[in-house]
Design a protein that fits this description.
heterodimer; A: mainly alpha; two-stranded antiparallel sheet; 3 strands; B: alpha/beta; Rossmann fold; globular
Chain lengths: 455, 261
Amino acid sequence: MPVDRSVDANLSSAGDMRDRIVATIYQRAEEITNRVCRMERVPDREWDRRLDDILTSRWLGFPVMLLLLGGVMWLTVTGANYPSALLANGLFWVEARLTDIFMWAGAPDWLHGLLVLGMYRNLAWVVSVMLPPMAIFFPLFTFLEDLGYLPRVAFNLDRFFKRAGAHGKQALTMSMGFGCNAAGVISCRIIESPRERLIAILTNNFVPCNGRFPTLIALASIIVGGVVSSYGSVVVAGLVVGIILIGILVTLLVSWLLASTVLQGVPSVFTLELPPYRKPQVGRLLVRSLLDRTIFVLARAVVVAAPAGAIIWLMANVMVGEISLLVYTAQLLAPIGRALGMDGYILVAFILGLPANEIVLPILIMGYLSSGVMIELGNLAALRDIFISQGWTWLTAVCMMLFSLLHYPCATTLITMFKETHSWRWTAIGALLPLAVAILVTFCVAQGGRLLGLV
Amino acid sequence: MGLTCQSCGRNACRTQWGGRAEHDYTIALAGNPNTGKSTVFNALTGLKQHTGNWPGKTVWLAQGYFQHRDKMFCLVDLPGTYSLFATSADEQVARDFICFGRPDVIVVVTDATCLERNLNLVLQVLEITTRVVVCVNLIDEAQRKGIHVDVPLLAQELGVPALATAARDGEGLPELLDAIYAVATGEVNPNPRLVNYPDEIAAAIDRVAARIGPMLPDGVNARWVALGLLEGDESILATARANAKETQLSVWGKEVSVFAR
């Protein structure tokens, strides 16, 4: 077919054509707006801008961010203490009654052991340790999101991401990761350049998600609670904030590393729109945070923990020579665990926790309980006693928190990564790169801590 | 309301909830980022898509169903986009659905507080189809800011139904439903007032459109594809090609590439 080239003859260039089309549309938009919109001076609308001047200022932006994050964490930890103790007491009271029923019915010991001491007790720990912090943290975080604070965070972090050779919007996708890394990986679609999008996808895992926040908060509370009592909540909040900051720092470092090696290129320019502050709908926010996030995460923990619990129970009861398979595996992994500041059981928990990060702590508790350490019914102090009886120090807790923060993402996130990148290679890197970072960091912290004689 | 269980974990990349229901009409929700599309979507379908106060939150098509009077509607929530001449992956998702998904009605959700910038997208959508309803959302926020929008006059200027809503509080949604119903069933036949391009551009559009029209799949607006090509949007080619019938593929693909240059 002949090609009609006369179209181009009238026009100097394609760029000119483009500009004129866009200009015509804009002109018409302006024309209509002028006709239908009427502005009225409203005096008291300046607070919006003044608030932005503070929240996104070069000097105050970061302190305010830290203060908000610390405040949210402090509220979470302080608020969670009381209901946690209450829940634990209530649930363990029920356990005693369940035991009574089993005794009365003359049920065999192994059945009572499996169902009550194994599954129920584990469930009780999970609920009392994880539920209260989630029920407080999630609504607070959602409140900030609905208010419009996240884009301000992105605005503050933008220049760091740019310096790392990544896209400024990565600050937004990272914020999304605080909720769920799978959702965070998908949100990377807002980044146009494939190079920068890949960086954002590969590093999304370095911020703690729904599933890991409760683990981090619980670990921090359990360990700090034993060291200091009066300023406990402040220290716990500080510890969790510190872990989050390390996560952001690692995100930037790894982004920079990727941008200066395999994914080189010039950061693209973009305009970030700061939306107006909007009054969050507190009622709806509470309901949704509780139903959709808290119960959802908890349900996932319970549901996925059940088969994992069965595996642990099997491993604890299948004998390899003199010792159980669980003890055998834990001992096998112990040297690696020790080098990283942890132990074999923790590594087993992380390996079995691949389907969902929520279940790492439950599996660990299960593992410890089934390895013969029976504990008295009681409160959170009892949980600390289990850990301490397994040789935990504060360094163990810190290393486990760091490993939880930095290690490979959950299976769902990995599948999402594959769907987004269509590449097994990048998915594998998405799993192995964080694992390598986690091993490196925990190794350095553990060996450093021991060398300096801190434990 | 923040992250919900329908928007994280393995649900994060699901595009449809509650099964594929029989429906009479497909409605697309388009609009600039952060104008409240997902809030309108949730309010109409009773679903719980992630809503949040930041641009770029929805990156994929979310699909839900609702009934109004005797008809069943399938509602598709699109990622926010400033323009149909797309750049990023999420914006392309929106553009492809608007241009080639052939929805029965396109509801363009606009932000009443910055209407001018939002109208850019509205005017582009009007180039594609006449079956458009403009939803002037966040009208409550605009009022607080002292901005008055004469919505009936806007409807007159655009030539399509326009309604004011405050989706968060459910204000104006019944009227929006009625307008969608009317346009979908053909009770109302909007007659949009298109942008008048300068003569030589209009001529160029007509020439390209006349040329590629016969080669496009049925129902795809040739004038629009011509405009996109002249505007320099190369990615429109790939999608148009994918939507073209196999036999026509090679012929018109080559042809159109020439125009694009």
